[in-house]
Amino acid sequence: MLNDMNEGKAKNKSGKIAVTSTGGSMDALVSEQFGRCQYFLIVDPETMKFEAVSNLGEQMQSGAGPKAAELIIGKGAAVLLTGHVGDKAEEALKRGGVKIINGLKGTVKIKDAINNYLSKKTEQ
What residues contact 113, with CB distance under 8 A and at least 6 apart? Predict the structure, then answer.
């Protein structure tokens, strides 16, 4: 089940969607972990052009979630699609105006997760 962890709409107006990913392409699978994912795909939903960004926090001893939150906020993400977000990262994302959609499983391709979100198949 997918969950919308925010009330109302995302504050960030760029409209970009960040997705936690196991690889650097739209055919990669959604990573179930936010702070420890390998990549973030930052996608423009209008053009479907994307940027694959390595998650430098993946190998951190601690603080990976907030560091990852800082990264995707800096990339202009308005929405995050992921499996799970820890408490500290959730706090940072909400402060940054990012709408969190969690509960995605690692068997879903990035492009399918985005298309499902855009077609309102995810619970909001």
Answer: 19, 30, 81, 104
